[in-house]
Amino acid sequence: xxxxxxxxxxxxxxxxxxxxxxxxxxxxxxxxxxxxxxxxxxxxxxxxxxxxxxxxxxxxxxxxxxxxxxxxxxxxxxxxxxxxxxxxxxxxxxxxxxxxxxxxxxxxxxxxxxxxxx
Length: 118
What we know:
Structural class: mainly alpha
Shape: rod-shaped
Largest sheet: none
Order of helices and strands: HHH
Strand content: under 5%
Number of domains: 1
Distance between the termini: 43 Å
């Protein structure tokens, strides 16, 4: 009879251990998801600020170049041509320049070792 209770006690401990391990994996996964979400939101905010900066800088540069070239539309055309050239380069080399680096960064972030005390 005593062996039976020991067996059931051990079985209960094993069940609790498995449940605890599942909860730990769930919480670590949740932690990684929230880290990624926080990173995404902070990068989105930085991107928005940078886009506003670039927008106003582009307008200023176009107005300045238009004044130098004596026609405003030439300044805007020149700035637009620079952006079109940048877009073409990024489009042609997106695999080497963007996709591989982003993929490697995401894989590194996902498999990043977390401290045990968290």
